[in-house]
Amino acid sequence: MATESAPLGQAPNSSLDTLARRERGRLFGLLFPGLFWLIVFFALPLVVILLYSFLTPGPTGNVIWKFTLDNYITLFTKDLYVNAYVRSLWIGLVTTVVCLLIAYPLALYIVQRSPRWRNLLLFLVLIPFWTNFLVRTYAWMIILANNGVINSLLQAVGLPRQTLLNTTGAVLVGLIYGELPFMVLPIYASIDRFDFTLLEAASDLGASRARAFLRVMLPLTMPGVAAGSVLVFIPTVGQFVVSDLLGGAKVDMLGNLLQRLFTRSNPPNWPLGSAMALVFMLVLTVAIIFYFRTTTEEDR
Amino acid sequence: MKDGYAIEMRDIVKRFGDVNAVDHVTMEIRNGEFFSMLGPSGCGKTTSLRMIAGFEYPTSGEIYLNGTSIGTTPPFQRNVNTVFQSYALFPHMSVAENVAFGLQMKKVPREEIGRRVDEALDMVRLTGYGERRPRQLSGGQQQRVALARALVNRPDVLLLDEPLGALDLKLRKEMQIELKRLQERVGITFIFVTHDQEEALTMSDRIAVMSEGKVLQVGTPTEIYERPNCRFVADFIGESNFIRGQVSALNANDVTVTDGKGLTLRGQMVQPLQVGDDVYVSIRPEKARLSVQRPSEPPNNLFPVTVDRVAYIGSDTRIMVQLGQDQLFDVWEQNTRSTVDRDAYWQRGEQGFLWWPAENALVLKD
Amino acid sequence: MIEATSQSQARTATAARAERRTNWRTLLLALHSTLMYIFLYAPIVVLVLFSFTTDSFGARLTGFTFSWYGRLLQDQRLIGAAWNTLEVALVSTVLSTIIGTLMALAMERYRFRGRTSVDALLYLPIVIPEIVMALALLAFFAFSFGIIENITGRQLKMSLTTVIISHIAFSISFVVVVVRASLKGFDQRLEEAAQDLGANAWQTFWRVTFPLILPGIIGGALLAFTISLDDFIISFFTTGPGTSLLPIEVYSQVKRAVTPKINAISTLMLLISMTLVGLSQFVQRQRR
Considering only Cβ atoms within 10 Å of each terminal Cβ, which end of chain B, N or C, has fewer? Predict the structure, then answer.
């Protein structure tokens, strides 16, 4: 801790102890409320679903206190659940990659503007970042609906209507739209720190622009890319609003299944839902660790 | 009280982890003196200062302020004020509010605060700057606000932690003079921490030279420069040539040293020595002479040398000569005549005689 | 001489070509960025525009009307939900800001055993999928209410209180991150200076530390407020029957039918969010 032991019986020692005790008291006072809240209302709930995941679902949506591994077995054997995992991870991956590909040049462009423009352009990216996700998703419903904006326009010029809503494409557009700011901001931050004279140094040493980008700029801006990817990937995989509103019942993601297991299905199955949520967390953690390992290996 | 000690540090140790940042330091600082702690970074001078201020508490030992022990008294209960290296001016307060802060904490009546703040600002020549924000001032002005903020409290001791470090050379010289004048006027004890030897020599009544947590020598600027008590002090304060050898003979204050390679030197004793001790003979470069011809009245230190390098640096010329087999020796000659004709001067490879009177050489232990 | 001229001409030609290439690249980047901004803002513009249409399907601009906004005022459920949302946001912001600021001070100013574990506990709510946290809270409340009922016989129900508790649990980490950032840039010498000038710990905090980290605290509070206002997932799972919040109300109306009325309420919500971003930017600018 903060003090170190001094030889016994020395005069200043006892008052140093008093001081250390006072400091410890102060630290405890600062730390306690937050620690209490996070342990009781964050860590404990996770323990509760861990507990539930090993219990037996009852016939009326209740929980029977009987230990079982059935929930986990169901998750890994039933196609419905396995497919939901695979689909969610796949959609998360596509969303992340597309966001990355369109966010990087945008961030680069913003960094290269004059300070005044830069602030404005960044601010414009920030606004959607702060606005309601639900509202932004809803906006796409108006645009993509069967009698929505795009179809009205198509009709007006004499073209046939298209089914746009309730497709995987609609879900992807909604997700990319919703998560784009989370990708732009960290990439912007890391490009902003990047020393552009390094590119000149690389070309001075004979590297082509493409090679200079791949060998110098990309590795040095990798922390931003990694942070952005994680920020996009996690909420995407756990999504249920976008898939619910833009995908209808057609595009089932993990979030939709979880929601149904906990609230809608008849009867609800909390133990299975808990197991599913935990495995989901686990898979995400593994994916993220793997990602960080592979992306941050080269830089520095 | 007047003649007593403002600060006494008795056998102070400050340990951080396994390192003794301050290692059994004992120092007495007299009332009203300008006292400097001088040493390279990491020598324990700033830690000592911070213990006097109360930001750190000694691991063992006692500190007395005007005869009262202040070991673990918190900083806000000590009548001691600090001028920080980075000034630490409160950015959210005006200059006047900064200066008034200490008086407000002491619950001084409002009108008196106003009067004393004005006085303090006058004293540091910042009259009329009260409403400005610190960031609107130049570095030198911020420095003076920091001084006013500390002095307005009339502390028993003012602590200055490398306060001139952030200023450019010219401004630093001006502030050195101003600080000294200010100290003489207010009569408060100043404890000044610096790694700049010139700064310490210019301003201080007394200097403590520190290294690796220990005090090596305490003395007036002349004592420190002319009579360093060890090789480190001679090396750190000013420049010096060192010739390593062993004491071969002692005669009162007169010491004879041989370097084992044929050189025999004579110098002054400044600390107790015995025949056979490993020592360094220290000769300041401006205290040696170089001449083309052997002096008519040969001094007891006279050596034939070869010029190795000549550097002209304006006020003087620095000549590096080779002495004996592998000893390089620096001699400075003042450029007292104005001439651009350097050909008439020492040339590389030229032979000459290096000499100095025995009282200019000090025999020091490591 | 002639050779030199032709060489320099050649060089200008190459330079011009290189410049043209750079221009092309910049142009391409600019084009891409323009498209991205259109992509980001077109849906918002459409949403706002169609809140004024007279077409009750909200798909065509048949005329201009304010009537959808008028209808909002008559929708008692919506207004009730809005008040609930505001109450939740205010209470959870105040509490999570206080708790988070204290915790940020502890984390930035003290070295203690278990500090890295606390750090991990703080970052977890930010990285964990929101739906997992929401479901865990739902399970936790049901579980602990069951225990309380067994012991005391009192029946507790999900309500605004459970929503507030959950929002605080989620917001603390964000407040801590923002306040810690402002503490990191804080020169601790300023606190020493205050103590040196006779201020005790309490006076030092209120006269020096607090005013200087206030922008960070306000930034954290604004973030917590927006998070709470906008949150749908956690509110959805932790609220009780009969107590609705604005995002939940919007969600259930959207599920029923798309009408310009939803556009109207969405527009208002956008307006509030934008005001908050503007405010937070303003506060951050003041800091400099």
Answer: N
